[in-house]
Fold this protein.
Amino acid sequence: MANNVSQEEAMRRISVTTEINAPAEVVWAQLTDTATFAEWNPFMPRLTGSLTVGARIEVRITPPGAKGMTFRPTVTAAEENRKLEWLGRFLVPGLFDGRHTFTLTPTATGCTLVQEETFTGVLVGLMSSTLAKTEAGFRQMNEALKTRAERAAA
């Protein structure tokens, strides 16, 4: 029983879903145009590197009400107009890992964007307040991406 409890504490998922009135292709174009992030993205103002599987990228996040941080995850999925994912680790695997995913699903009026991160590791339980601010950052980014993509599609 104790093992189940500690495993529960060692994982946390944040997921924010946003309906966007623009085709997945338009949303994908905005999401992967990382050179423009500073212009519109309040949560992730900088992302550099190649969005190809196996590439290391550099990501700067600025959650609302929290100190910003830069990390260097590895891209684990890049399926055009559908899915972008990376895995970041703090120091060593199992300490504090984050698998960040953007998923686009076509709908009758555009697409659904799900931005999600699954955090695992022994430090997850100590990061509750930071993770709550991260969720607020996901909401800000999704809304900004929605606005930008809907303008581009108009």
